[in-house]
Structures are given as structure tokens and as C-alpha cells.
Amino acid sequence: TVDLELETQIELLRETKRKYESVLQLARALTAHLYSLVQTQHALGDAFADLSQKSPELQEEFGYNAETQKLLCKNGETLLGAVNFFVSSINTLVNKTMEDTLMTVKQYETARLEYDAYRTDLAEL
């Protein structure tokens, strides 16, 4: 008892899961890099603010750079929050939703094998 259409759909689901796992891995890498970027921008903002206090002749330029870095840091944190939400959603899709579906597929395959075994036994009788 093999349903070719269902088998095709199951293989498509497995392939889709592999693709989403790849997207999840890339999104996690993006999150790590973005986090590092935001931390660097924060440190740069602090350094420029400190330099603006210690260098009166360049106070305006360093102050402008400090504010720019702080604004970039704030926007980076917003982006980081959105990427984290994306990662969480993809993680749920891959490791819960798709995994549950594939577990159901395994149960289906086991039931199908059992049915075929009983059918074969019945045919022998």
C-alpha cells in the first residue's frame, strides 16, 4: 500500500524542512553578527562622547559622531529584536511544527507496514 502522491508530498516536506533549517542557521549567524555590530556601535558612541569631552577643539565633530553612533545603536537594537523574533518563529516552525508533522508521517509509515504485514498474513491463510 503505497500512495505515490502522498510519498511525493512527504519528500517535499522533508526537503522544505532542510531548506528552513539552512535559513535558521543563517539567521542565527546574522543575529550573532548584528549583536556584535550593535555592541561595537555602542562602544564607539561612548568613545566619541569621551573624546568630545577631552578635545574642546573637536568637541562638535566628536559629539556629532557620538550621537550618530548612539542612533545607529538604537536602530540596530530594533533590528536585532525583529531578527530575534524571526529566528524564534522559524525555530518553532522547523523544530516543532514540521517535526510534529514528520513524527505523524513516521507513525503513518509504521501503520502502513503493519497493515501490509497483516494483509500478507491474511492472503497466506
Itemize the secondary structure elements and their pairings.
Blueprint: H1 4-54, H2 59-124
* Distinct helical segment count: 2
Give the CATH H-level superfamily: Arfaptin homology (AH) domain/BAR domain
CATH topology, which one? Substrate Binding Domain Of Dnak, Chain:A, Domain 2
Largest beta-sheet characterization: none
Low-confidence stretches: none
Beta-strand fraction estimate: under 5%
User: Could you estimate the helical fraction of the residues in percent?
Assistant: over 70%
Structural class: mainly alpha
Number of domains: 1
Report on the structure:
With 125 residues, this protein is mostly helical. The chain is built from two helices and no strands. It is rod-shaped, with a radius of gyration of 27 Å. This is Arfaptin-2. InterPro entries: AH/BAR_dom_sf, AH_dom, Arfaptin_fam. GO terms for molecular function: phospholipid binding; protein domain specific binding. Residues 1-125 form the AH domain.
Tags for this model:
Substrate Binding Domain Of Dnak, Chain:A, Domain 2, mainly alpha, Arfaptin-2, protein domain specific binding, AH/BAR_dom_sf, 0% strand, 125 residues, 94% helix, Arfaptin_fam, single chain
Short description:
The protein is mostly helical. The protein is built from 2 helices and no strands.
